[in-house]
Amino acid sequence: MVAGFFTWSENVTITRAIKVVGRMGVMISSYGIYRMILRYGAVDALRGKNLLSPLLYMAYLVLGFLSFMWSTNPGFSALQWFMTLQSLVFGFYFVKSLMLLDEFFPGHAIRLYNLLGNAVFILISIFVVGMYADPDTFFRLTHGGEEARLGGYIMNPNELGMLAGVGVACLIFDIYRNHHRLWTITKLIVIFYALYMTGSRSSLIGALLIILFHIKQSQNKRLKTLIIAGILVVAPLAVYKVILKDGDSSRLEEVMSMTGRLPFWTALIQEGLPREPLLGFGFMRIDYKEYFQSTHTYPGKMTHNTFMQVLMNLGFVGLTIIIFQVMFTLRGFMGEANEKKLMLIGILIPVLINSFTEFGIFGESNYGIMFYQLLIFSISFRSGGELTSRQKLHLQVAAKRQRTRTPGQAFPRGGKSVQHMC
């Protein structure tokens, strides 16, 4: 699903096929896996919790749908809205499948952070190999060809850096549980190398924050010492090379203006917002034309700040909804068990930092939105408690079917017995 957001070919037809057919196929397969788990011996008795988080997100999407009526480009708004809905449906069944496994097969080895971490590693490895095998494709030249950043035309380097940050946040938990520790450290090294080659300042800051966050939480003094030592060795060079760009004074000015973003945001508030302050220009639209351009700023099709994006495309009404949505999502994180809470916050850190400088969680369709939707659904379900008669019968039939297939094996494997569940 993440790979479906990349531009794997400059051929428009191939790109559209991957994005439409590929992502639709994965979305449908997520429902298929959900149904397979039910047939294998689970019942969907999950109930809702922290409902204000998903409900406010749905309110945001409803407002976005209504905005087609006043959008300055209804076709573009509709395309972006349906792609966001697509990843929402995928995330719903993906998280539900994992939670049903936890509920009915508690001995299973599948972990969300391991799945995401390995997915990121595989994708990042393609870019690392590609930067040597085909640098013209996998590098993007910026600043008049002076700087080569990993990503190429395939993916915006800052977005690729955010993906690397998510990988770091997830794979750290494999170190906590001592899961193939040497191999996990190797994966983290590859991901950090790719992060460095993207030249993404915001993503580097996000990765450092993730590490510092885990240092604070960890009770393992030896692990803390090793991590701090690694940061002291790597961080100064990374900050000097990536953030300060070798101390170049002209690039330092660029840092201070956030690569021209600050004057652009100022112009949006002063010139663009007064035109449509209440309900905005329509879902993912920031002006009456395709690009917003002030006298003293570059032309932009998106705001490079997800909260500013909502303000421009859905006005103050939309901004109010998403501010409360984020607040209730964070509140939901705090109510989870410690390990899950750490995982959710760890994944949110790079995604949220990226939201202040790029597409973000409420911007144009990107995998940051999908990660955020996964986090929302991760706090939206709880065990349903007592089963209905129909659900108990389903478990009994599934258990009988399973015993027929694998004689002598208890059902479910590593999970609760049918007698216990019924």
From TrEMBL:
Q: Which UniProt keywords apply?
A: Ligase, Membrane, Transmembrane, Transmembrane helix
What are the transmembrane regions?
20-38, 50-70, 76-95, 115-133, 160-176, 188-213, 225-243, 306-330, 342-361
O-antigen ligase-related domain segment(s) = 188-322
Localization per record: Membrane
Q: Which InterPro entries match?
A: O-antigen_ligase-rel_domated, WaaL-like
* Single GO MF annotation: ligase activity
Q: Which Pfam families match?
A: Wzy_C
Q: How does it sit in the membrane?
A: Multi-pass membrane protein
User: What PANTHER family does this protein map onto?
Assistant: O-ANTIGEN LIGASE, TEICHURONIC ACID BIOSYNTHESIS PROTEIN TUAE
Name under which the protein is recorded: O-antigen ligase family protein
Protein's organism: Chryseolinea lacunae
